[in-house]
Amino acid sequence: MAENGNGSVKEGFEMPEIKYTKLFINGEFVDAASGKEFETRDPRTGDVIANIAEADKVDVDLAIKAAREAFDHGPWPRMSGYERGRILHKYADLIEQHIEELAALDGIDAGKLFAFGKAVDIPGAIRMLRYYASAADKIHGETLKLNGAYQGYTLKEPIGVVGVIIPWNFPSMMFFLKVSPALAAGCTVVVKPAEQTPLSALFYAKLAKEAGIPDGALNVVNGFGPTAGAALTSHMDVDNISFTGSPEIGSVIMQSAATSNLKTVSLELGGKSPMIIFDDANLDMAVGLASAAVFFNKGEICVAGSRVYVQEGIYDEFVKKVIEVAKGWVVGDPFDPKVNMGPQVDKVQYERVLKYIEYGKRDGATLLTGGKPCGEKGYYIEPTIFADVKEDMKIAQDEIFGPVMSLIKFKTIEEAIERANCTKYGLAAGILTNDINIANRVSRSVRAGTVWINCYFVFDADAPFGGFKMSGFGRDQGMNAIEKYLQVKSVITPIYNSPWL
């Protein structure tokens, strides 16, 4: 039985057993060398779910040593791509057998909607894994046309040991967004999940071993950024770091990579994405998309369309309708199928969002709806909408990572483009219009890695994803992602007595 809303009881659902709380190193679950543990908490109540083994430098060193040995001498990079693909497909099969349990782990650890996890999050992670499983035997170089009596070709070789650091907002999808292409390429991996949400990552580690991924090829070290994360990014035996998180930590990681062994780095660092709605857009569709773009997943999503630009001809009507929608969103227990929005991930994030709501009021924005905590316990916040937002306000410039919408009126296409680009970020953008010429012009003018036209949150394993400007560099998804984990080698040999060159 689980709590429903913020206090009542929903029959017929049992919370998952917490089976895995240790570090996963070289194919085994082990305690931290120091014996230290930390608490992971349920954001619905603030109560402790479990005590988790806390890795520090000693443990990270052991995990990297295992990964290095598995890469330098183990079978994983020496298998054919076909064989790696078969094992990764088996891995996906095993995850499919545990969809409900994994969705429940992300629900209690991150406050994510259980129904959405079962229908979208975990199946999406499985599709990501299968995409790269199928790509594992399609990695190849090129034949080169050289000047002179030589023949040349390129090899694409796995880069080595990959360090993966993932955030807490999509624990399962982020795990496979990074791990799948790295494993498919033949790399070995050390994952540091977010300290707020380690539970599903540890479950995935167990299933990886069961699927036949060799010991040392996939390791999971729970812990904190300044200790476990820093040990991973600065290690001389790590060849690549793939990170999703904040620009501030991304900058620290780049410095760490530069001052250690010049390891390659890919960064996805969040955004402050504009949703641009023109007068000719379908109004009801625009209201629905704009609401979902910022309130979905309680605003804890890097591409949240939190800056909503509405052309003046439909602005007033849009405002009326979007307030109605926000007031209709049900906030409560993520295991209740009637709920639209669960709690913020933890107390720190909850207080951060409330602080930014106060910034909005202080700086002169008009609070139209929401803006308050809700429920007697847990980290719940009402869907919040501000109007009269100026570009220099903190709520317009900073990534809040919460259910806070900033409404801004505009007149011309030129103004919309200029305002949309008035941010240090460049991760995504939405354009709503029925005019193909407007759509083409604006999509080419907005500096963002993904632009959605008359839709939003459309992700696919085949569509490269990443940012411009301070949203980072490098791409996840698509075949572009697998290239991050490969190195190109040119091989040149002389040819003798050839009838042609």
TrEMBL record:
Keyword ATP-binding tagged: no
Entry's Gene Ontology molecular function annotations: aldehyde dehydrogenase [NAD(P)+] activity
SUPFAM superfamilies: ALDH-like
Reaction(s) catalysed by this chain's protein: octanal + NADP(+) + H2O = octanoate + NADPH + 2 H(+)
Keyword Oxidoreductase: yes
Keywords: NAD, Oxidoreductase
InterPro entries reported for this sequence: Ald_DH/histidinol_DH (IPR016161), Ald_DH_C (IPR016163), Ald_DH_CS_CYS (IPR016160), Ald_DH_CS_GLU (IPR029510), Ald_DH_N (IPR016162), Aldehyde_DH_dom (IPR015590)
Domain Aldehyde dehydrogenase: 29-491
Active site feature: E268
Transmembrane intervals: none
Subunit relationships: Homotetramer.
Family: Belongs to the aldehyde dehydrogenase family.
PANTHER family linked to this entry: ALDEHYDE DEHYDROGENASE-RELATED
Protein known as: Aldehyde dehydrogenase 1
